[in-house]
Design a protein that fits this description.
CATH superfamily: HesB-like domain
CATH architecture: Sandwich
Number of domains: 1
Distance between the termini: 18 Å
Number of helices: 1
Largest sheet: 6 strands, mixed
Oligomer: single chain
């Protein structure tokens, strides 16, 4: 039986949140959610947002990543990272719960 843990946020993702705060003048939490849709059945919803009372809050150095309780089961043991490659810079999810994903990287199935 695999141990289920909340998602983990990399130092690189927290560093990117710090850069965004420097550019905008104020830190805003990053929300990572899962919703129905996309080309594989589910899609990630990654955006700056305000916290809700029932969010899981992952925090480092005053920067926060939020996960709502509905999305949390889909993100157990996942890693929230930031990727800066030639094709673009974006937050990415390494999700062991996804049985497949599509080429866009924002849609997956379980």
């Amino acid at each position: 039986m695999e141990l289920t843990l909340p998602p983990r946020v990399t130092d690189r993702a927290f560093a990117r949140l710090a850069e965004i705060a420097d550019m905008t003048g104020a830190p805003r939490p990053l929300r990572v959610g899962v919703s129905g849709g996309g080309c594989s059945g589910f899609q990630y919803d990654i955006r700056l947002d305000d916290p809700a009372s029932d969010d899981l809050v992952l925090e480092k150095d005053g920067f926060k990543v939020l996960v709502d309780p509905v999305s949390l089961p889909f993100l157990q043991n996942a890693v929230i990272d930031f990727s800066d490659e030639l094709i673009g810079a974006r937050f990415v999810i390494e999700n062991p719960n996804a049985s497949s994903s599509c080429g866009c990287g924002t849609s997956f199935s379980v």
